[in-house]
Amino acid sequence: MDTSEEDRQLGELGYTQKLSRSVGGVSSFFLGFSVISATTAVFSGFGFGLSTAGPAFVWTFPLAVAVFFVWALIAADLVVKLPLAGYAYQWTSRLVSPNLGWFTGFAGAVGFISGFTGVAYVLSGYVGSLLGIEMSTSSQILTSMAVVLLCVLINVYGVRLATILNNIGVALELVVTLGATAFIAIVAFFVSNEHQGIGFLFSTGAAGDSSSPYVIVWLTASLGCIFGLLGVESAADVAEETKDARRTIPRTMFLALGVASAIEFFMYVVFLLVIKDPTTLSESASPISDLFAQQVSPWFSKFVIALALTNILVCVLASMLVATRLVYAMGRDNMLPGSHSLRRVSPTHKVPTTAVWVTGLVSLALLLSALASEQTFSYIVGTAALGFFGVYFLTTAGLLVANARKRIPQGPAGVFDLGRMRLPVYVLGMVVFGLVMSALLFLPDFRANAIVFAVTMGLAGLWWLVVLRGRIARAEAGPKYVLANVENHDPAAAPS
């Protein structure tokens, strides 16, 4: 589709094209893939799964893929109808109500910002491990802050630079991560001959002795695999910067999910089979690093970790990019405090500069909270999954209402469409997203995260009750405000 036609269609929704529509199919796929980040997922999820449910945790991974496939179906169906920055915020605001859109968008911002902040913190920990130094909390925070600031500067410069660097990082991930995983498998099976048999993948390890039924332990371990696929919908949030978004994004979304899932499962299986001492490794703080050190050498382990850091860095970069578009979209609709500034786009770089800086500053504030309490910080970043699944659940619930009211618009011919499968998919989504949300809210291991998330959403509720509800009722926020003000050409005249 010609970009001028996409600009015209954007205008029909109340916006003018201010962002740079420069993201092609490859960059769209790489963006979604890097937010999922197979390397980050496996490096952070492997130890949790192994220590929680033993090697058999790997068979929870297909369940995780199924959950996200349901969400990808829903998101792909919506992005062809409303290809707008802000993805689920826009979908729920326009198809149901801006009130629901507010809570959906806020939950998404919580998910992305706390998520990439946590990844930056993980990255700084690996830097210390790579350099062979034990980093203090303050040193790790300073390193994390430097990572966040670097990503802010790259994102401020423009989406083209961010996607180019992201593409390079993903290309390295595909080549190096897969290569290193295949290499350690060759060493274990054909050189040292020190590896586990296939039956090991079905063993429960020490988890079999748990006082809880193993099926509960096993399902708890599935959350580690679920965390590793968060953000599959990321490409939808940069729809206004994607060429031929209606056709491109559904393809790249499914491709990112498929490729990331295949790579993660391959890595999980290989890493389990090349374990020499299961008991020691399940207690390790850095099991992946130890695997490479035991099977090859400590130097090879450091080399792999060094390259993996680039993958983790682009995960932070891409996740921040997506988060800023959500903040920008909500500011553009006058939904946030300071919307007058958040909606501004740099005419030179075609980037929502203020939204980028504000997103970065929120992340830095979260990192500084670790100085007061590392435990509190871990609870804050632990809300990421709750934020994402809050979006999935609220969006799907809203879509059931919209579908009953026949408010789901028809997409153009020749693009992805759920058609008659829409209602069954929505019902299935409510079930699976509800189950995951329930686990994240009520399982003892995650209860503290749930409390932090509830308090955070409570603050969002307070803003809505005191200010935003009135704005929406007066058509001073949300889609009606946008259509009345035609992209806020006179933002000074509107309250913010």
UniProtKB/TrEMBL annotation:
Keyword tags: Membrane, Transmembrane, Transmembrane helix, Transport
Bilayer topology term: Multi-pass membrane protein
The protein, known as: Amino acid permease
GO MF, one annotated term: transmembrane transporter activity
Gene3D superfamilies: Amino acid/polyamine transporter I
Annotated localization: Membrane
Transmembrane segments: 28-50, 56-80, 100-121, 141-158, 170-191, 211-232, 253-275, 303-330, 351-371, 377-402, 423-444, 450-468
Annotated GO CC locations: membrane
Main location: membrane
Domain of life: Bacteria
InterPro entries in the cross-refs: AA/rel_permease1 (IPR002293)
